[in-house]
C-alpha cells in the first residue's frame, strides 16, 4: 500500500487537487452566500432555487460535449482550460449586477467547478489505474472534503474582511496563482503512455456512450447512484434556512464541516480498499443507508447536537459515494471511452443536483417545511436501496464479465 502511494504520489496528489479546487463551483460554497445573493437580487428561497436549477441544468446539458475533452487532450491541457474558465466564473460572480449575469456566473461555476474539475480528476484516476482503481479514486475524491473542511471557514472570514464580492476575486486568484501551476506540474507527465494504459486496464467489453445509454443496467444504477446529488445539494443549498429555523449558531454549523470531511476521508479510503478487494459492484448495495439516516436525523431533531450526528452520517454517505461513483463506471463499462462515458454520468449527477434546490425551494415557498421533505426523502432511500440495488448488482456483474 505504501509503495503504491509513494510511486504514484504525483498523479494521486494531482487528482486530489483537481477535486479539491472544484469546491469553488460546489453547492456548499456557493450557498454560503445564499442570503446575501437573495437580498441583492430580491429573490425568495424558491426564486433562488429556480435560478440555481436553471443554471445548473444548462451546465448539465453542455457537460457531455465539453467532457469529451479528456478523451482528446491530455489531463494537463484539459486542467489548464478548466481552471482558467473556473477562475473566469469567479470574476463573473464578482461583477454580476443583473439576474442574467448571476445565471451566467452560476452556469460557469457549476460547469467548470462541480462538473469538469471533478470529471477530469476522477476520469484520470479511473483510466490510469485498474487493480488499484479504488484506492486512486478515493484519494482524488477526498479532495472534495479538503475544500469542504477549509473553504467555508476561510472564505467567510475573508468576506467579513474584504466583502462578499471581493472574496470571489480572491478565489479566482487562488485558482490561477496556486492551483494552476501546482496541478500542471503534477499532471504534465502522463502516468504511462496511453497505449500502455489500454493494455493494462482494458478487460472485457469496452462500451461506447450510446451502448451504455441503451443498457437498462445503467439507468437502474443511476436511480441509486445519483440520489445523493439530489439530497446532499438540497441540504447544503438551504443551509441558511436550516440555521434560521433551528436557531443554530452559524459558526457551529460551518465548523462542523471539518467533522464531516474527516469522516468522509476515513470512509472514502476504507471504501477504496473494499472496492479493490471485492469490487465496486459488491460494495454498492450498502451506500444509501447512511444518507437515509442522516435525512431522518435532520428532519426530526433540532437541538445543536443534531449537527454533529447529521454531519457524521453524511460523512459516511459521502465517503462511500465519492469512491463508488468513480469506480463503478470503468469497472462495468470499460476504460476505452471513459471520458465520454463519465461526461454523461457527471451530467446526470449535475442534473440531479440542479433539480434538488429548485424542487425543495418551491416546496418551501408552498408551505412544506424542509424538515418534512427530508423525512420523505429518508424513507424513499432505503426502499430504493433494497429494491433496485439487488437487480443492478446482478446486471452489473454480467456486464463486467463482458
What does it look like?
By secondary structure, this protein is mainly alpha-helical. Helices cover 83% and strands 0% of the residues. Helix 2 runs antiparallel to helix 11 (164-187) and helix 9 packs across helix 21. It is globular, with a radius of gyration of 20 Å. The model is unreliable at 193-201 and 395-402 (pLDDT under 50).
Question: Could you name the key traits of this structure?
Answer:
402 residues, mainly alpha, Growth Hormone, Chain: A, 23 helices, globular
Quick structural gist:
With 402 residues, this protein is an all-alpha fold. The chain is built from 23 helices and no strands.
Fourth-level CATH superfamily: MFS general substrate transporter like domains
- Which range does the strand content fall in? under 5%
CATH architecture type: Up-down Bundle
**N- to C-terminal distance:** 29 Å
Query: How many whole angstroms does the radius of gyration measure?
Result: 20 Å
Question: What is the helix content?
Answer: over 70%
Residue ranges: pLDDT <50 for 5 or more in a row? 193-201, 395-402
Strand count, sense and barrel status of the largest sheet are:
none
DSSP summary, beta strand count: 0
Structural class: mainly alpha
By DSSP (H or I, 4+ residues per run), the number of helices equals 23
What's the mean pLDDT score? 78
Protein topology:
Blueprint: H1 2-7, H2 9-21, H3 27-30, H4 34-41, H5 45-66, H6 69-72, H7 75-95, H8 99-128, H9 133-141, H10 143-162, H11 164-187, H12 194-201, H13 209-213, H14 216-225, H15 227-237, H16 239-246, H17 250-255, H18 257-278, H19 280-283, H20 289-300, H21 305-333, H22 338-365, H23 370-400
Helix pairs in contact: 2-8, 2-9, 2-10, 2-11, 5-8, 5-22, 7-8, 7-11, 8-9, 8-22, 9-18, 9-21, 10-11, 10-18, 14-23, 15-22, 18-21, 20-21, 20-23
Amino acid at each position: 500500500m505504501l509503495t503504491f502511494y509513494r510511486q504514484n504520489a504525483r498523479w494521486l496528489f494531482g487528482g486530489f487537487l483537481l477535486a479539491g479546487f472544484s469546491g469553488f463551483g460546489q453547492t456548499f460554497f456557493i450557498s454560503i452566500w445564499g442570503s446575501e445573493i437573495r437580498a441583492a437580487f430580491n429573490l425568495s428561497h424558491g426564486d433562488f432555487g429556480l435560478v440555481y436549477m436553471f443554471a445548473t441544468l444548462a451546465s448539465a446539458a453542455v457537460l457531455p460535449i465539453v467532457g469529451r475533452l479528456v478523451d482528446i487532450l491530455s489531463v494537463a491541457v484539459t486542467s489548464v482550460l478548466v481552471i482558467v474558465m473556473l477562475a473566469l466564473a469567479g470574476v463573473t460572480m464578482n461583477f454580476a449586477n443583473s439576474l442574467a449575469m448571476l445565471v451566467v456566473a452560476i452556469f460557469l461555476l457549476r460547469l467548470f467547478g462541480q462538473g469538469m474539475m471533478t470529471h477530469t480528476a476522477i476520469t484520470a484516476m479511473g483510466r490510469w489505474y485498474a487493480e488499484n482503481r479504488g484506492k486512486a479514486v478515493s484519494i482524488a475524491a477526498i479532495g472534495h472534503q479538503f475544500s469542504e473542511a477549509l473553504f467555508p471557514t476561510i472564505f467567510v472570514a475573508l468576506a467579513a474582511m474584504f466583502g462578499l464580492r471581493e472574496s470571489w476575486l480572491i478565489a479566482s486568484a487562488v485558482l490561477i496563482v496556486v492551483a494552476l501551476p501546482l496541478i500542471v506540474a503534477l499532471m504534465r507527465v502522463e502516468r504511462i503512455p496511453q497505449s500502455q494504459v489500454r493494455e493494462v486496464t482494458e478487460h472485457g467489453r469496452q462500451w461506447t456512450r450510446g451502448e451504455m445509454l441503451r443498457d437498462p443496467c445503467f439507468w437502474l444504477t443511476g436511480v441509486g447512484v445519483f440520489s445523493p446529488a439530489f439530497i446532499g445539494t438540497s441540504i447544503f443549498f438551504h443551509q441558511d434556512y436550516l440555521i434560521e429555523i433551528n436557531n443554530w449558531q452559524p459558526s457551529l454549523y460551518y465548523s462542523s464541516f471539518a467533522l464531516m470531511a474527516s469522516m468522509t476521508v476515513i470512509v472514502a479510503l476504507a471504501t477504496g480498499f473494499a472496492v479493490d478487494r471485492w469490487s465496486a459492484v459488491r460494495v454498492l448495495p450498502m451506500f444509501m443507508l447512511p444518507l437515509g439516516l442522516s435525512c431522518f436525523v435532520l428532519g426530526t431533531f433540532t437541538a445543536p447536537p443534531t449537527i454533529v450526528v447529521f454531519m457524521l452520517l453524511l460523512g459516511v454517505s459521502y465517503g462511500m459515494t465519492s469512491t463508488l461513483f468513480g469506480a463503478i463506471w470503468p469497472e462495468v463499462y470499460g476504460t476505452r471511452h471513459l471520458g465520454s462515458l463519465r461526461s454523461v454520468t457527471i451530467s446526470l449527477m449535475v442534473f440531479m443536483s440542479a433539480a434538488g434546490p429548485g424542487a425543495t425551494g418551491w416546496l418551501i415557498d408552498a408551505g412544506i417545511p424542509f424538515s418534512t421533505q427530508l423525512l420523505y426523502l429518508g424513507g424513499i432511500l432505503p426502499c430504493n436501496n433494497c429494491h433496485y440495488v439487488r437487480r443492478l448488482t446482478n446486471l452489473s456483474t454480467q456486464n463486467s464479465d463482458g
